[in-house]
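not sure who needs this but someone in the group chat was asking about S-methyl-5'-thioadenosine phosphorylase from Dentiscutata erythropus so here u go. i didnt clean anything up, its just raw.
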Amino acid sequence: MDKTKAVKIAVIGGSGLYKFDHLTPIKEIYPETPWGYPSSKIVIVEDSRGSQIAFLSRHGAGHKYNPSEVPSRANIAALKHIGVEVIIAFSAVGSLREEIKHQDFVLPDQIIDRTKGIRPSTYFESGIVAHTTFADPFCSSLAEIIYSHRHCLGTNITLHHNKTLVCIEGPAFSTRAESHLYRSWGCDVINMSALPEAKLAKEAEISYQMICMSTDYDCWKQDEESVSVEVVVSNLNKNAENAKKLFEEILPDLEKA
């Protein structure tokens, strides 16, 4: 049997998170799907217990895809093809709440879609029609596992849960008016990557949970510098080690789930 097909857990790494140093690479695959090739080669890595995990860089090697260009259908289809049943997706987010500080982590449970319909977002087209429930876009049991390990992040970093994420088109950041609008809607964090990734995982019947890493206050907070790539990357680099630490902590529980 092809060992690659036994891989049950996948990590999709976002901006600034391209590998997990404590995991040993054993294989790279680059499967073609009916929707093209994934963003990058899928790296199969192994932990100290011999379990295999698939790692996929959302934006590709060298960050070559902007959020609107990410081949999400190929990404999810490729992971499904190798037998993935659980996806942990990391993403940078802007905070829309004072209490969600730079470098805090967030587990969203809801999404508001502010993409513009230019991203291919379903497998059910061209004569194949199905309607998938999307009331709960993330997996609550995965969120519970992750939240139970929040103490590994230390006392200076909070892991927030049950928060609402608004996904915008990008690649431009929000206007100030939009940022205040999203706050008035009850949104807590903002990114450009949750959709259609979460929706496609639901269609593929893969359990999916995003772990968000706060890098900035978008542009609503008057006493903060407006969000920029430099601010995001700086805080992402600081977050990377904590992201790796958190994943290492949750991995044994994911393997048992």
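also The beta strands are 9-13, 24-29, 42-46, 52-57, 86-95, 105-114, 159-168, 189-191, 207-216. if thats useful
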